[in-house]
Amino acid sequence: MQKPPPPLLLFTDPQRIPDPVAAAQRLPAGSGVVYRAFGATDAGAVASDLRQVAWARGLVLLIGADVALAQACDADGVHLPERLAHLAGRLRRRCPGWWVTTAAHSLPAARRALALGADAVVVSAVFPSNSPSAGRPLGPLRLATLARAAGGPVYALGGIHTKNARRLLASGVVGLAAVEGLSPGKA
Predict the structure, then answer these.
(1) Strands 8-11 and 32-35, how do they pair?
(2) Fewest beta carbons within 10 Å, which of 13, 16, 55, 99?
(3) Whether the model pTM is above 0.85
(4) Which fold has domain 8-182?
(5) Under a CB-based contact definition with an 8 Å cutoff, are residues 113 and 90 in contact?
């Protein structure tokens, strides 16, 4: 990792964030964007636009599970799903200036990803979430236990918004991640 971990990560989702570029423009400097294209036909154009916003606003840009797209848009790194965590070390060696984060849905998965070379893990779901893939929420206490035992930087994701984020202040995470919780009008 070249820079300190961003304290806030926006995860894009084409269904829940139809305009990721506008969402990125609202982020505070020093935040990060994880662009997940999910096969979108305009992924290259959106990633390029996000790169421009990231440079202008001092954001970190990670591309979700698409190394070629990350290289093409000169992203700051990639975010891998838990099933691809084994690629973290190889990617960091191949692209030494990149951030490589992975999803983790349990303590063993978090430890494994960090041991395999991930810069940080994004643990979910912390609170009940609108994500179709969200499992049973960990809650703040189980998240804190996981963060202390993981062996590296942990982000919290899942159902986080302005009204419950304070409950995670003492959890030991390096930052918060959200999809809809960063949208205007979301509580």
Answers:
(1) parallel
(2) 55
(3) yes
(4) TIM Barrel (3.20.20)
(5) no
